[in-house]
Design a protein that fits this description.
This protein is of the alpha+beta class. The protein has a single domain, classed as Orthogonal Bundle (Cytochrome p450), CATH 1.10.630.10. The chain is about 50% helix and about 10% strand. Strand 5 and strand 6 form a beta hairpin. It is globular. The structure holds protoporphyrin IX containing FE. Protoporphyrin IX containing FE binds next to helix 12 and helix 16.
Amino acid sequence: MSTPTVLDQTDIDGIDFAFDNLPDVHGVLAGLRANRDYAIVPFAGVRAVLLLTHELVSAAFKDEATFPAAAIYRMTTGPVLGKTLQCMEGTEHRIARGVATPPFRRAKVADYLEPLLEPLAHELIDRFASRGSADLVAEFTTKYPVLVISRLLGLPIEDETVVHRWAHDLFYFPLDPEAALRASREFTDYVTPIVRARRAEPGDDLISRLVTESAEGEHLDDEQVLSFLRLLFPAGADTTMLALGNTLSALLTHPDQLALLASDPDEWTQWAIWEGLRWEPPVGLLPRACPEAVDWHGISIPALTPMIFSINAAHRDPAVYERPDEFDITRKKMTMLSFGQGVHSCAGNWLAIAELTTALRVLLDRLPGLRLQPDADTDAEVTSQVGTALRGPNALRVGWQR
Ligand code: HEM
């Protein structure tokens, strides 16, 4: 007879937390959390431990020994992106991160504003500003973060359409693995000669830095550079795209908050971004694994158990946030959990914040009186994108005064 484990019973049935579209995800998570700090839920056809409180999610992110990132990413993204930072451990991870991530540090990010972030936001808005209406998802949020990455890498502007297609196909990996693998191969074939050329003759772009910089006396080899470049699209562009969509959705469906922001953008823009990240973090549920059996915070977890860190439940934990379901930009709280914590926490969080604040400021400045079109509410609601974990609006059909 096998020994009973925490996984013997689920707390909810009829929902798969890997694949299903959960329109009322916050209601479902709050119901589970009212019962216990964690729940046993169906996940990709098996059972997973879903962590639901701010305390547990934060502790789990910091506990790389118990929940090593590599254990999950080698299985999930490894086949398509290769051995990225997320698949690395220990010294290898520290050195690769030491080489690749200094350009994204907080102090460096201000350098991107004038030459890159602001002009790019204007460039995209120029294409539709005179029309008086647009779908900001199709025409802005899906484009801006991919173009930021593409230009940071110094890729030729005439190649941006195909780069955008590769980024899109990599994002839809769980739904269309063939297209994602093809995109990964095509992007690698395309960028490999560029990497070689920058090794021979470096410029001041990100690829040149990746091939010339060192950490602890070590340089990145070609495959380490390529896997970092492949990771930048799903990790850097798609997350920021969803975050921008979610904050715009929140503002457009809460006109009082949008009016407050518009009344004093200098004061409120950054707080609108942080509150958007709290209210609807783009990475709502983050899968991990627990390779070894462990007693962890009173939960007896068997070996090889899938784990889910619910960032979105942590962000609405009533023990930490008053009126957690309200979108309120006057909270003035930096919700860093959106970006993970511990050794694998987001390497691009300050770039993301700079992109989001710049985009929001320029959009509100260029499109005065921004509002949802009368029949656009349902499309604008944040919902599951590509499985349950990633969340964003399907469309943001808006109008403004010309
Ligand atoms: C709002 C936008 C973003 C969000 C919500 C976000 C979220 C996250 C999260 C939650 C993780 C941790 C994953 C884990 O622990 O398994 C992560 C890792 C990472 N992010 Fe971001 N991210 C954003 C933007 C960016 C940008 C703009 C870049 C780069 C330019 C970036 C690069 C990375 C990288 C390289 C990692 C892996 C770090 C490592 O494993 O050491 N992210 N991100």
